[in-house]
Write a structure and sequence with these properties.
Helix content: 25-40%
Number of helices: 13
Strand content: 15-25%
Distance between the termini: 36 Å
Mean pLDDT: 94
Radius of gyration: 20 Å
């Protein structure tokens, strides 16, 4: 009997062959990328938050009927975060040149992360129950609520029957999904992995919860200037929503299909702080361990990193901790960007969105600028890109994501 093939080593990269993005900057990867390069925030007053102390957010723009079509009468049972995940997954699979009607679905994995999943629907249905009784509660509440349903509906939509997981590591959930999907590929448990994150939790209660803990910017008079990562006068993040899905394949499989990869996901580091429910460990010591682990998996040194897509929430403590860690581990001052200046903080989707933007940065040799940041109000000795996009060949880049609970995830991307 022939022995089964050995799984690839962890130092084997996987190829990013497809991207799907639905963000407050645009419906689709191209429209999102164009707005990201402009470097201007999309935050605006939010009518649904008009009674809140912080009354602005970053919302996904209204979709055309064609863009929003789920089909098959299925949309009614899906939470908004699930619909975003399905639409982003469709774009990613199409972008990768894959045909779900012709693949072996048992070899296709789906991993989707979310921080708050269907909390928005629980809030809405709780009010319905309170004011009208149990008969007003939707029979679809549970499918709308549970965090695994984004992955489940993507499976149903695409006919994927391989491993399926939902990752929940707060604001690192989307990045955790990509790291997990990479492991599934390297272990030989699938041939295609569809992975990312989705979030739609901009509600009065959730926004008020973040505001009460001091996490949100209070610039109610000027929402467009509120999110300002790494600025000296930053005062908190802007709550947001969105989804990103990436298609991952082994490089040899992508080449056999004639597909050019956006980038290679060459390493991933995951650690935990075990320090505080919401505050990062001082100095980012355990985030540093995650960064060094990602470098080790890719067989690279810190000096090889050309670019950092930072977590960059615009909160005082997170940006300080992250800047200290970047300066200590990467003293050669690679370029730094932070998408939350434009997009706000989409919580569990943010890590996947920023991973997709990192892959686009490598593909286009262009680093987006940080919104609302100028050299004059930069608080740290970092090479932050400001004002205009920067033309730069990026051979190796890290995308960093950190979540409440002390979750640290660093993804390392390289040129194909």
């Amino acid at each position: 009997m022939t022995a089964p093939p050995s799984p690839p080593t962890l130092r084997t990269p996987v190829s990013v062959t497809g991207l799907g993005l639905i963000t407050p900057a645009g419906v689709g990867r191209e429209s999102t990328w164009v707005r990201i390069l402009r470097g201007r925030s999309v935050a605006a007053a939010d009518p649904e938050l008009k009674e809140c102390a912080v009354d602005f957010s970053c919302r996904v723009p209204a979709m055309t009927p064609e863009q929003a079509r789920i089909g098959g009468g299925k949309a009614w049972r899906m939470g908004h975060f699930t619909r975003l995940a399905v639409l982003a997954a469709r774009e990613a699979v199409s972008d990768a040149g894959l045909d779900p009607t012709g693949w072996d679905g048992s070899r296709v994995a789906v991993v989707i992360g979310s921080g708050l999943a269907g909390a928005a629907h629980l809030e809405d249905q709780t009010l319905r129950h309170h004011h009208g009784g149990p008969e007003l509660v939707s029979p679809a509440l549970v499918p709308m609520l549970i965090p695994n349903m984004a992955a489940g509906e993507v499976l149903l939509d695409l006919g994927a029957r391989g491993p399926s997981l939902a990752t929940e590591t707060a604001c690192a959930s989307g990045a955790s999904a990509l790291a997990t999907a990479r492991q599934l590929l390297l272990a030989g448990l699938c041939d295609i992995a569809i992975a990312g994150g989705a979030e739609a939790a901009v509600t009065p209660v959730i926004t008020s919860g973040f505001q009460r803990m001091g996490a949100l910017s209070s610039r109610t008079g000027d929402p467009g200037a509120a999110s300002r990562p790494f600025a000296a006068d930053r005062d908190g993040f802007v709550i947001s929503e969105g989804a990103a899905v990436l298609v991952l394949e082994r490089p040899e499989d992508a080449r056999a299909r004639g597909r050019r990869a956006y980038a290679q996901l060459a390493g991933a580091g995951l650690t935990s702080d075990a320090y505080h429910p919401t505050a990062p460990s001082p100095g980012g010591v355990h985030a540093e361990t995650a960064l060094r682990a990602a470098l080790a998996e890719a067989d690279l040194s810190p000096a090889d990193v050309d670019h950092v897509n930072a977590h960059g929430t615009s909160t005082p403590l997170n940006d300080l901790t992250e800047a200290e860690m970047i300066g200590r581990v990467l003293p050669h001052r690679p370029s730094v960007t932070a998408a939350k200046g434009v997009l706000g903080h989409s919580l569990g989707a943010a890590g996947a969105i920023e991973a997709a933007l990192t892959a686009l940065t490598i593909r286009h040799s262009t680093v987006p600028p940080i919104a609302n940041l100028t050299p004059g109000n930069l608080a740290f000795d970092l090479d932050c890109v400001t004002g205009q996009p920067r033309a730069q060949r990026v051979r190796a880049a890290v995308s960093q994501s950190f979540g409440f609970g002390g979750h640290n995830v660093v993804l390392l991307f390289t040129e194909e």
